[in-house]
Design a protein that fits this description.
With 292 residues, the protein is of the alpha+beta class. The chain contains 6 helices and 17 strands. The termini are far apart.
């Protein structure tokens, strides 16, 4: 007969009683980056189409400096900055600085933000939902779905502003052999650590994602082919030199990379990915632990 054990008693606090400690925020509830949350933890924050905006809404209907949200005497105010198409708050045009209240809907172009007041448990909820839908559970970097969405937008932005855009596809060499020799738990640990090594060398504007099983994608706005190739080389050397240890066993790990750069106006995402994939195959065929 199986030995009976007592059920453990866990005390769970009510959600409303938990300390949230979060800044007020704007959450995208309609438009690109659906679910993304922007914390309002600075004195003044600008919204617009310009690349220097704190919240960039890259749409034709949005002015370069469209609106701002600022803190004044403990309140958060929204003000239109003379935009062409206006700023809409709860279906009303913003003609003067207007106080934001919890639950307000702010429309900029085709994008609608929901305002969430500080220390509101809903902010934590939106954080978690956005993370679950955009982040890979194992490596804690962006997932393929998010990467594909961003790639479309960045290509459009590169065409519109005539900017460079490069893509690096990175694959762990002989990953199946790592799984076979050391086990799948060791393979997962390697995946997670490789992601951490590469992420440490990315800029804030770069987009780094898990693209497949043991494959990663790194999107580099405003970086030309030479710069992307140099970064990929650096990544290869960093991974090669890094000491990967699982259960006190050192696992040798290297990666290969393929680089492609936008070549013509109107280029489709599929073409950019295909060229990077062809280069990655060339790097693998050329002996691995290298960039093509």
């Amino acid at each position: 007969m199986a030995r009976q054990t007592n059920t453990a008693i866990t005390v769970i606090s009510k959600i409303g009683q938990r300390q949230v400690g979060r800044a007020a925020a704007l959450v995208v509830i309609h438009g690109d980056d659906l679910g993304r949350k922007f914390d309002l933890n600075v004195e003044c924050l600008t919204i617009g189409r310009g690349a220097d905006s704190d919240i960039q809404v890259d749409q034709q209907a949005v002015s370069r400096r469209h609106a701002e949200v600022r803190s004044e005497e403990g309140r958060l105010l929204v003000e239109d900055l003379g935009s062409t198409n206006g700023t809409i708050l709860n279906d009303e045009q913003v003609d003067a600085p207007t106080r934001l209240r919890n639950g307000d809907l702010l429309k900029i172009g085709r994008t609608i933000f929901k305002f969430i007041a500080s220390n509101n448990i809903e902010a934590a909820y939106h954080d978690e939902i956005y993370r679950m839908t955009t982040v890979d559970g194992l490596t804690q970097i962006f997932n393929r779905r998010y990467f594909d969405d961003v790639l479309d937008r960045e290509l459009s932005r590169a065409r519109r502003y005539v900017r460079q855009l490069s893509l690096v596809l990175i694959d762990i060499d002989h990953f199946k052999k790592i799984n076979d020799a050391f086990g799948h738990l060791a393979g997962d640990a390697v995946l997670k650590e490789v992601a951490g090594v590469i992420k440490s060398k990315t800029r804030r504007e770069d987009v780094f994602a898990r693209y497949g099983g043991e494959e990663f994608a790194l999107l580099l706005p405003e970086i030309d082919a030479r710069g992307a190739h140099a970064l990929a080389e650096k990544v290869c050397r960093l991974v090669e030199k890094h000491r990967f240890v699982f259960d006190d066993v050192t696992i040798p790990v290297t990666v290969s990379a393929g680089v492609s750069t936008v070549q013509k106006k109107g280029e489709l995402p599929e073409a950019l990915i295909r060229r990077a994939d062809e280069k990655l195959y060339a790097a693998k065929s050329g002996g691995r632990n290298r960039v093509a």
